[in-house]
Every structure is written in structure tokens, then in C-alpha cells.
Amino acid sequence: MTAIVTGASSGLGRAIAELLAQRMPVVGVSRRGPSTILGDAADPDTARRAIDAAEGLGAVEILVNCAGAGIFGPAGSYDVGAIDTILDANLKATIVFCNALFPTFKERGGTIVNVLSTAALTGKPNESVYCAAKWGARGYTEALRAEAKGTKVRVISVAPGGMDTPFWPERRESFMDPNDVAAAIVDAIGRRVNVTELVITR
Predict the structure, then answer these.
(1) Which residues form the catalytic set?
(2) Is 109 left (phi over 0), alpha (psi -120 to 50) or beta?
(3) pTM value?
(4) For the domain that residue 6 is a member of, what is the CATH number?
(5) SS3 62
(6) 56 phi and psi, to 5 degrees?
């Protein structure tokens, strides 16, 4: 059994990868190290390279989509580059990796974890594009779960609240510890019951 974790260079993605690595080989994916595969998670070539690397270690049975990017500001302040960055990291990357592995998981079984945000549950001021991307990822995940019904695929969505990670330019000590959130996610992956949705807040 092998796992692929996107966004594995820091924060929650890194914490999840480190916990899973105690149980199985893990291929981490990120734009910057330390990760097994360096590349844009929204690029299908990155997904292919990650899957090839993982399959060399064992059958891929777990995919955790944790890549993300945040650019915030009032509506009307986003240029096209910022919009593309937000949509690619938070929505397109999730779709690309799921698209690459879903057919295989249907045949031999597998678990997909799509890390969203509480921004996928409620609109927030100064986060309009980020919310749009996360709501899109939530809709995609729900549709994927409906399509997976009756197959060997498990689809778990996770909506964590704010975490004290490098996602933010300064420390936010009142936010959750990403290691605690990672522990809850890895616990859900390992449970025999079918956990489908997690909302994790302090």
C-alpha cells in the first residue's frame, strides 16, 4: 500500500505525509521541497510522475489532496494571475489527481481525501475567489462521492478551520495545530467505518 499527498512540503500536507509514512511509503508532491515529486499539482504530468513513483513502491491506495494557495482581498482587487493561482491550487489540482486515480481505485479500491476548508461551507469577506475555489472543490467531491457509490472507492472531504501554518505570512498561535488536524484525518482514513465528511474546528 502506498499513499500520495499533494501539498506535502509544509503545513497540514507535511503533517499528514509524516503520519502516513509511519504506516506505508508516501510520495509527497509540491512545488518546492522537501517532497518526492516537485511540480505543479494542477499539471497532469505531475500527477503521472507521482503515480509512477508511488506504484514503484507498491499499489497506490490513498490519495490526499492538500495542495492549496491563498490570495485574499476585497472583490474587484484580483487580477487574472491571482485568480488562476487560486483556482489551480485549490480546485484544478484536486480534479487532476482524482481524475488520474479514480478509475484505478474503482477497480481495486482506494481512499481519496480532499482537504477543503471551512471557506467551502460559508462565504467570507475578502476571500471571494478562495471561497469560490473551495466551494467548487466541495461540489466536485460530493459529485465524486455520488459516482463512487457501489464501487470500492472511499471519498472523504475535510473542512478544517484556521491552522497555524506557513499558509499565513505571520504566526497565528490562536489557530489549530496542524499536527492535531492531521491526526484526525489519518485516523479517519484508517477507520473501518465509512467516514465521509469531517469538519475540524477548535
Answers:
(1) 130
(2) left
(3) 0.92
(4) 3.40.50.720
(5) strand
(6) -70, -15
Name the average pLDDT for the chain: 93
Regions in the chain scoring below 50 on pLDDT = none
Concatenate the DSSP letters of all residues of 99-118 into one string.
HHHHHHHHHH-EEEEEE--G
CA 93/CA 72 separation, integer angstroms: 19
Quick check: 160 and 176 in contact, CB under 8 A?
yes
Q: What range does the domain containing 156 cover?
A: 2-200
Beta strands in the chain (DSSP E): 2-6, 26-30, 37-38, 60-65, 110-115, 153-160, 197-200
Q: What pLDDT does 14 receive?
A: 94
Strands 26-30 and 2-6: parallel
Tell me how many domains the chain contains. Answer: 1
Q: Which of 175, 168, 176, 160 is nearest to 10 (CA)?
A: 168
Q: How far apart are CA 200 and CA 197, in angstroms?
A: 10
